[in-house]
Amino acid sequence: MNNLIGQSLGRYHILEQLGEGGMAVVYKAYDTRLESEVAVKVIRTEQLAPSILERALKRFEREAKSLARLTHPNIVKVTDYGEYEGKPYLVMPYLPGGTLKQRLGRSIPWQEAGHILIPIAEALDYAHKQNVIHRDVKPSNILLTQDGKPMLSDFGVAKLFEMEETHELTATGAAIGTPEYMAPEQVTSMAVDGRADIYSLGIVFYEMVTGRKPYQADTPMAVMIMQSRDPLPRPKSFVSHLPDQVEQILLKALAKDREDRYHDMGEFAAALRRVAGQGVIGTQSIMSRVPYRGVILTALLGVFLLAIIGFTIWAFNRPGNGNFGGLSIASNTPPALNSSAITASNNTAIPAASPPQAPSNAEPFTFGLLLAGRHDDNGWNNATYDGAQYVVRNVPNTQMDYLENVYSGSPSYPGQTASQLATQMVLHGAKLVIFNSNDMKDEALKFARANPNIYVIGTSDDWTWQAGRNYQDSPNQIDFMGRMEYMKMIGGCAAALTTKTGKIGYLGPLINDETRRLSSSAYLGAKYCWTNVLKNDPAKLQFKVTWIGFWFNIPGVTSDPSQVADDFFNGGYDVVISGIDTTEALVEARKMNGSGRNVRVVAYGYKTNCSAAPEICLGVPYFNLGPATEAAVKSAIAGKWKEDFQWIGPDWTNINNPDTSAVGFIKGNGLSSTASTQLDGFIVQLAGGLNLWTGPINLQDGTSYLAGGMAGTDTQIWYLPQLLQGMQGQSVSK
Question: Which partner from 128, 209, 559, 713 sits 20 to 30 angstroms from 517, CA to CA?
Answer without folding.
Answer: 559
